[in-house]
Amino acid sequence: MKKNLFEIKLMIPPIILALLIVQFNFQKINWFVSSTIILIYLILSFLFSFFEHLEYTRLSAVFYALIFGYFLPLIIFYSNYRKSPFEFYLLMFLSLLPVVISIYDYQLAIIISNNKENRDSDSRGLRRDLIFFSSDYGVTFFAVAGAILFGFLPWTSFLIFFSLFSVFNNILKFVARPFLKSTAILALQNYFIISFSLIIGILLGIIIKV
């Protein structure tokens, strides 16, 4: 049960972000369709918990991040804005990229910490994973800056940049000791730090806009 509750908590930030971004950009939310998507989130989260005994792979981590970070929020977007211009997809890509990357990095941290017996035989692969883990967080902040410049997110979303120190401090701690479960949890902390700083920033923008 604890695992199921944890997975549900992991899905909450993308739902909130999608609804806030819709409210900021379109000023109207289709609550019926959005509630249906939220229910699908919870069902999928419950179903995913049955596969927790399976070994994490990089491919499964990619699918996990894309499904919960992009695909389901895309349905929420589309249900509220049925036109599909290029700006629509750019909005979705930039605005949700921080969540997608953070979900993937958490999965990657689990994979690395679970493979400590292979750290000597696959040092090149470990080095590659750690470089990817460290560098792609920077992409999330550039994505937010781009979304703000294009007007997809309010200027108050710059609040996420106040999380830079905490996020990169956690990155350094994980890279220094990547085979400990306790340091793998730091990637989960980064996920919530990034997600909720972005949520608070968008919410402030909506309040100011109103």
Automatic annotation (TrEMBL):
Keywords linked to the UniProt accession: Membrane, Transmembrane, Transmembrane helix
UniProt entry tagged with the keyword Nucleotide-binding: no
Top-level taxon of origin: Bacteria
TM regions (residue ranges): 7-26, 32-51, 63-82, 88-109, 130-152, 158-176, 188-208
Keyword NADP: no
Organism: Oenococcus oeni AWRIB429
Protein name according to UniProt: NADH:quinone oxidoreductase/Mrp antiporter membrane subunit domain-containing protein
